[in-house]
Specification:
This protein is an alpha+beta fold. It is built from 24 helices and 19 strands. The strands form 5 sheets. Strands 2-1-6-3-4-5 form a 6-stranded mixed beta sheet. A 6-stranded mixed beta sheet has the order 8-7-12-9-10-11. Belongs to the AOR/FOR family.
């Protein structure tokens, strides 16, 4: 049965108390991103820093979670250690369905546990367990122990952090069920600041589906479109690693700290190469028939004679770019080793990859020395990078402590800001041109998924600044509504406005279906309002010189166009935020 209100569980780690409340707003903020921003406004202490114990860590799902395929994401919202402003990070795995079957629309965590702890949540169980013996363990060890402690099947999710999160690094992610992550902007550090090693959500309640013929008809149509169209083949076959060759051919793949945008050696790390020699199997988030998660393997000798242990590691385009092309590592198995080390440490793989690329160029130019890096960083040197990633997670010396705060912080301290590949945070893997660089630099999540700027760049020349700003705003508005449904954005070609309206009506949310456009606008406004209220000044954002020096398939970057676009987009963000 549908609910016009949200069922929100609030847990205070400091006192151990929890409350469940009904919160109005379904027809105003929908769920997901909109609900996260609304709860952040309610519980955030605007004028206190991100690691203040009473600051909230928020998990939300949407009105279609559990009803339709690929409504499989969870939105995680918090005050970011990266910039001390409002932030969102989106993750999948079993997290969304676990919340749905636990009968919650949102989980809000405040306070700080007395000892390193795991929060256990179900429909009939809320418990804070002391797990001090797991503090300091990597993700692999912690995962094994936690799965034994909290057994369960498809409706149990375990969110956990590694050493990087415990050390409060802004590069720390939250790992969900081994292969999925709340990756960007430091959610892992927020958990670490709360003495929270893990969150276990057990979907131990029931979730009834509508019995109407309308629902069955709409579901069958959506499922067919998901599985019978090119979307299934694209994401199931090569998945996003197929973009490596595409971006390289377009002269849009960041290579060796964006010193190049194409290189024939990238054939060693294309999606085709991974599939040929390294792909072990596919996996999927709960409730998804597509199976876009690609899992490869690495092996390590554990005895002098030929005895090996195999480990399974997920990979996608962003990870291959970050610790592959960006570091000049052009062997797929070496890329998997680097991903494996970063995963164990609980690091968002993209940030350390881009940060170490900057450090490699800074070392080569004499801005820093091996006294700082501790290992001889050089493009292509996978062994050194594996060690450096661990230094970054543990903050071995002053240099790595500063670098783990972000590449921009390190460039401020040591120099080399011109070639720091930072667009709000460490860049994503698309060097497509001016519109994408601006959209990522100013975007709320600093993610390539904030908007379709990377696709807009690939359109013919001749567009004006006004055209680009209009595209960014309207495209973001559409994506914000999808993320308020908590749809995987890979499904955006299937979940058109018409289809979303049909989905909402079929399960009883007719009022929301009739006002999607206005609700999307309100959610977009609320998110920007929260970002600006927590200190965001979009007009002050700068784009490093390196991004003006590259050449794509369209030619050299138009620096004047990019500067004008940045200024006009910043004005529009402030206008939306009110």
């Amino acid at each position: 049965m549908i609910r016009e209100h949200f069922r929100v569980l609030l847990v205070d780690l400091s006192t151990g108390r929890s409350t469940i409340s009904d919160v109005e707003g379904r027809n105003t903020v929908a769920g997901g991103s909109g609900l996260a921003a609304m709860l952040f406004e309610k519980y955030c202490i605007i004028d206190k820093p991100w690691n203040e114990p009473e600051q909230p860590l928020i998990l939300t799902i949407g009105p279609l979670t559990g009803y339709f395929p690929l409504m499989s994401k969870t939105v995680c919202a918090f005050k970011s250690p990266y910039h001390d402003q409002y932030a969102e990070s989106h993750g999948g795995g079993r997290s969304a369905l676990s919340l749905r079957f636990a009968d919650y629309d949102a989980l809000v965590i405040t306070g700080r546990a007395k000892t390193p702890s795991a929060l256990v949540v179900g429909s009939r169980r809320i418990e804070i367990k002391d797990v001090h013996y797991l503090w300091g363990t990597d993700l692999q060890v912690a995962g094994k122990v936690l799965r034994q402690m909290f057994p369960g099947g498809g409706h149990r999710t375990i969110l956990r952090i590694g050493p990087a999160g415990e050390r409060l690094s802004p590069m720390a992610c939250i790992t969900a069920d081994t292969y999925r992550h709340f990756g960007r902007l430091g959610g892992g550090a927020v958990m670490g600041s709360k003495n929270l090693k893990a969150i276990m959500i057990h979907g131990d309640s029931t979730f009834m589906l509508p019995e109407s013929k309308d629902y069955a008809k709409v579901f069958d149509k959506v499922y067919k479109d998901m599985t019978d169209t090119d979307m299934m083949s694209k994401y199931h076959n090569l998945g996003t690693p197929g973009n490596v060759r595409v971006m390289n051919d377009l002269k849009a793949l960041p290579i060796r700290n964006l010193q190049a945008t194409t290189d024939p050696e990238t054939e060693g790390i294309t999606g085709e190469r991974f599939a040929e020699v390294a792909l072990l199997r596919n996996a999927a988030c709960a409730g998804c028939p597509v199976g876009c998660i690609h899992i490869g393997f690495v092996r390590e000798r554990f005895r002098e004679e030929n005895r090996y242990v195999y480990r399974q590691i997920s990979y996608d385009h962003e990870l291959i770019f970050a610790v592959g092309s960006m570091l000049g590592v052009m062997n797929c198995f070496e890329v998997l080793k680097l991903i494996d080390v970063a995963e164990k440490m609980g690091l968002d793989v993209m940030s350390p990859g881009v940060a170490l690329a900057w450090a490699t160029e800074a070392l080569a130019k004499g801005i820093i020395t091996e006294k700082e890096t501790l290992v001889p960083l050089a493009f292509g040197n996978s062994a050194s990078y594996q060690t450096a990633i661990q230094h970054l997670a543990y903050g071995t010396n002053e240099f790595y402590q500063i670098l783990s705060q972000g590449t921009a912080r390190a460039a401020e301290r040591y120099g080399g800001g011109d070639f720091a590949c930072v667009l709000g945070q460490e860049m994503a893997g698309y060097a497509t041109g001016e519109t994408f660089f601006v959209s990522q630099a100013l975007g709320l999540r600093h993610s390539h998924l904030d908007s379709g700027g990377y696709s807009y760049d690939q359109k013919p020349k001749g567009k004006t600044v006004e055209d680009a700003v209009k595209f960014l705003i309207n495209d973001e508005k559409g994506r914000v509504f999808l993320t308020s449904m908590v749809s995987c954005l890979f499904a955006r070609g299937v979940y058109t406005d018409e289809v979303l309206g049909n989905c909402l009506r079929s399960v009883g949310y007719g009022t929301l279906a009739d006002s999607m456009d206005s609700v999307a606008g309100e959610i977009q406004k609320l998110r920007w309002k929260m970002r600006v209220r927590t200190g965001y000044l979009p007009e002050s954002v700068s784009i490093p010189k390196r991004f003006t020096e590259i050449t794509t398939w369209k030619g050299a970057i138009d620096a004047a166009f990019m500067a004008n676009l940045k200024n006009e987009y910043a004005k529009k963000i402030l206008e939306i935020a009110g």
